Each structure stands twice: as C-alpha cells, then as structure tokens.
Amino acid sequence: MNYPNSPTTRTALKKASCSNNMERLQKVLAKAGIASRRKAEVLIQEGHVQVDGVTITEMGFQVKKGSVVTFDGKRLAGENKVYYVLNKPKKVLSTVNDDRGRPTVVDLIDSPERIFPVGRLDYDSTGVLILTNDGEFANELTHPRFHLKKVYEVRVKGIMSTQQIKQLEQGILLDDVMTLPTKVVVTHKDFEKELTEFKITLVEGKNRQIRRMAEALGLTCVRLHRAKFGIVDLKELPVGQYRRLKPMEVKQLRQLANEGTVSD
Q: Given CA atoms 233, 235, 239, 241 in this order, what sign does their dihedral have?
C-alpha cells in the first residue's frame, strides 16, 4: 500500500506531472494544423521541425510545455480548426501543392487557414473529399485501425460474373495482403458496350485499392466516384464546389472512427 507522502507515491506523482507537461512532437504538429500525425513524422525525419532552436529528426521526441516549436523557421501558432467537404473533379490532385503546377484540391477552397486533404482520391477519381487543418481529426479518419465506411460508385469494362462479385466481397490479394471484406451491389450491366456498374463499400483505404482489385480480376476501372465518406455525402453539391462540415457531422465522424463502427 502506498501512503500519500511515501517516496513511491511522490515519484509516481512527479512522473504523472512530467507526463502531463510533455507531448509527442508529431502530435504538436498535428494540433497546429501542419499535417496529420503520419505526415508530421515524415516532415520531422526530413528536418523541417525545430524545438527551442534545435532541429529534431527523432521519432517520438517529447516536447516540454513552454518549448518553442518552429516549422521551416516559422513558429507554430494556434489556428481555428476548419472542416470542409469537396466534390472533387477529375484531373485535380489530392495534395497541397504540385511541383509541376497542376491544380490541387486546396486550390479549389477559399480558406485563410492552411488546410490539407484527409486521405486522397486518384487524379481521375471524383467525389467526396474532406479537407481540414486538424491533424488529430485527419488521423482518426485515416488510421488503419479505424474502420470508417466509404461508398464508391464504379464502372468497369467487362461484364462481371457472380464469382468475381464474390471475390470482391470476400477480399482480393494485393501485395501479399488480403483486402478486408466489402459489400458489392451491381446497379447496371450494359451487355452491348460490355460495361458493369456497381457500388462497393470499403472500410479501408489502400493506395488505388478499387482499381487494383478490379485489375486483379481482369477488369479495367473506367469511372470511380466516392459517393459517401462515413455519414458525409455530396447531396446537391456540384462538381468542384465545397461546403463546411457541420459541427454535428465532425462529431459523428469522430464517434464512428473511434468506436470502430460503420454507419448505415
């Protein structure tokens, strides 16, 4: 039994106090709206971040309360957290900037805050894309341990067989890793043009996952549109247009991610 003034208790309280005054550097960057935690780790490794004038490249570095953190020489400042949903058009990159001068999703949103996309959609894909400056929120929505439902409308060349549909639903082997089970609903088959349209629901987000799953079955994806991300859909939002997420939508997305559940 530990008594209130015993050395053991004092040591435990001191450790707890120190812990409360320390925070991982990548979390500090995420809170400041620089990037998601995973992207922040890359920025740290690349030497973009300084703490009290010293460049830090160590993963898991703990920042003391009151320390001055700078990103590329600029001191971090608190930002108002903003959340947008964009109906992404084709031929637009899901990134903050492009060294080849191509248009990016950030170019489409008039925001005074420095925002970034939560996850990504391919250059030729369209649909729901969330952008924010809240790194913690972005991490909750994209981290592999959070299974947040995303619904896509897909068109492929070829008439899909019942066996191919079952394979999509049960999982496809990509890079020696089996994809998680999905839900597939065929909405149209055009036998004259040899096209199949279907909706697929994913709870993960591997790079170019749907296109690669189709290719593994000998099919070519010719249209890919994300219709829903968790509880967020486009409703009557025109292509290339955006709106702010409602506070309740942000709250519900966080709840769905942290509960590891999917919405109906």
A: negative
Instruction: Match domain 83-144+232-259 to its CATH number in 3.30.360.10, 3.20.20.70, 3.30.70.580, 1.10.10.10.
Output: 3.30.70.580
Tell me if 83-144+232-259 shares its fold with 150-229.
yes
Active site residue 122: yes
Whether 50 contacts 61, CB under 8 Å: no
Give me the DSSP letters along 104-172.
BGGGG---SS--EESS---TT-EEEEEEES-HHHHHHHHSTT----EEEEEEEES---HHHHHHHHH--
Find how far residue 169's CA is from the centre of its chain: 23
Active-site choice (98, 122, 190, 233) = 122
Under 8 Å between Cβ of 166 and 131? no
- Domain covering 7-75: architecture: Roll (3.10)
Q: What is the pLDDT along the chain (264 residues), one digit of tens a residue?
A: 444 455 554 444 344 434 457 888 988 888 777 888 888 899 999 999 999 889 999 888 998 877 888 899 888 766 688 999 999 999 999 999 888 989 999 999 999 888 999 988 999 999 999 999 888 899 888 877 777 899 999 999 999 999 999 999 999 999 889 999 999 999 999 999 999 999 999 988 888 999 999 999 999 999 999 999 999 999 889 999 999 999 999 999 998 887 764 444
